[in-house]
Amino acid sequence: MNGKRTRVVLVHPPLKNVITAATPDYVDENRGHTPPMGLLYLQSAIEHSRHESVFLDADLEGWSHEEAARRALSYGPDIIGLQAMSFTMPDAYLVAKAAKAIDPEVATVIGGPHPTIYPRETAGLEAVDFAFAGEGEKNFIAFLDMFRDPVERTKVPGVACRAGEGEGEGGATTFNPAGLLRDIDGVHYPARRSSHYERYSSVLAAHNPVTVMITSRGCPFSCIFCNRMGRQYRYHSAGYVLGEIEEIIGLGIKEVFIHDDTFTLNRKRVVDICEGIISRGYRVSWEARTRADCVDEELLSLMKRAGCTRLSFGVESGSEKVLKRMNKDMDLKRVEDVFRWCRKEGITTLADFIFGNMDEEADDMEKTLDLVKRINPDYVQYSILSPYPDTPLYKLGVEKGILPGDVWAEFATDPLKKFSGPLWTQNFTEEELVRITARAYRAFYTRPSFIFRQLRKISSLEQFKNMARAATTILFS
């Protein structure tokens, strides 16, 4: 271990070139800004080490890629660290290129889901010195400890780099796979105080600011369209979660979005969290993502009393045939019951559905629209099936020739080339799927009953303005 401190600037890039599937333009508009939790967990880990770090949210600030690079370099860093999903890789790479153009000596590191899937491809990019795969709270600190040693730093689990940084020949890259963290209670709370936490907001929030919590990692389910970055489910204890909520309340944050894949997977833990919120008198509103088969009427009632205001359910389809193709075991009668229970408790619901699924036909889509009418969610989100990298669906699409090749891997070698996320066009063209999705959105959000229901819920001028902007884009797009 080298005794010298390493100075890092972590940058959330300006999201100006996000790769999206061909969905209606208004779907991603007016959502506000929520904190990039991966970087804030990493910022906290560095703050608790002997090294130094600054966090910059260039997207929140509205900076250009060049401005983000200049701001980062003004702190005199040894390393500029960026996080990227595959969809945001172009923006992360543009910041890295801008930084290198100004100061070729600064080291650039890109971590997150994209380099976890494509570590060698990411490390092989001209403006990237290191790619970092997997969870970084422990391994990235080890990398900083070894940063002054050109050989030892390449041996840290999760690190990928070009040949010449360690072992390797020619244009090859070296990569050391990393395992998962076992005890995630050993991870420090994310460094919200190092961000402009008071400025994060959401169109769905009754009161801003908002923040995000991640109380568990991994997902044990096996839906073919999803990559959860590991099937091993790990969760924070109820005590850890309650401590983080207390810290959030102390910052004056009023609403929390729990971004677990399935928050209610461990029922006892959720009961302990909810009972802890109630017994401690915490006043906080929160929403979570879950599945209809992971909640019951009694649990929903307790969650409501503990401050749960919204739940997002991945229903995906109203066709049992399609659900089986997706490897999603879901009882549609149970779905109807759960939405009825939420309505009874006064919990706002959001239902997620996907069009263009494997073997899906027009009558399957009609079944989905019929189910939406029956469950009558407060909000609905329709998306078009897009084969994400490193999912069973993506691999099947390549094998069957539904996709023109390993397009995401090709993109990983050149993230600035013109590229859009592929759609599953087995039975419908891209244009047909976009038209179907747009029609479904308008049919749901222009119903008089929906508009009246939303007007009754508005509790602040800010919320009214947010909803008005969102409604305008739907009506006139």
Low-confidence stretches: 25-29, 166-170, 471-477
Largest sheet: 7 strands, mixed
Could you tell me the radius of gyration in angstroms?
23 Å
Report strand %.
15-25%
Structural class: alpha/beta
- Estimated helix fraction: 25-40%
Q: Give average pLDDT, whole number.
A: 91
Number of strands: 15
**Arrangement of strands in the largest sheet:** 2-1-3-4-5-6-7
Distance between the termini: 57 Å
Shape annotation: globular
Number of helices: 18
Folded structure, characterized:
This protein has 477 residues and is an alpha/beta fold. It is 38% helix and 15% strand. It is built from 18 helices and 15 strands. It has helices at 37-47, 58-61, 65-73, 89-102, 113-117, 119-123, 139-145, 238-250, 267-280, 297-305, 320-325, 332-345, 362-375, 392-400, 407-413, 430-445, 448-457, 461-476, and strands spanning 7-12, 52-57, 79-83, 107-111, 130-132, 159-162, 173-175, 210-213, 216-217, 234-235, 255-258, 285-290, 308-316, 348-355, 379-384. The strands form three sheets. The chain has a seven-stranded mixed beta sheet with strand order 2-1-3-4-5-6-7, with helices on both faces. The chain is globular. It starts with 6 loop residues before the first strand and ends with a helix.
